[in-house]
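Format notes (please read before filing issues)

Several people have asked whether sequences and structure tokens are stored in separate files. They are not. Every record keeps both together, in the order shown below: the sequence lines, then the token lines. Line labels are part of the format and must not be stripped during preprocessing.
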Amino acid sequence: FRNTNGALINIFLAKDDDVVPYSDAITSYPFSRFMKIFPDGGHRFKEHWIDVMNRAEALLEGKR
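Then the structure lines:
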């Protein structure tokens, strides 16, 4: 998918993700509206899931 204006693209990455190399994602999606890189959390953001959900809630409420 390519949404070059990035209006709806929010990216959450973890440096220790063993599925998605975070450095590749940074260069692949420079047009995202929001990008958060966690030092840990793996592929599922277990330790940081509340941060992801808070961002999603803010978007739904129109607080970009």
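For reference, the curators noted about this record: The first helix runs from residue 22 to 28. The chain is about 30% helix and 15% strand.
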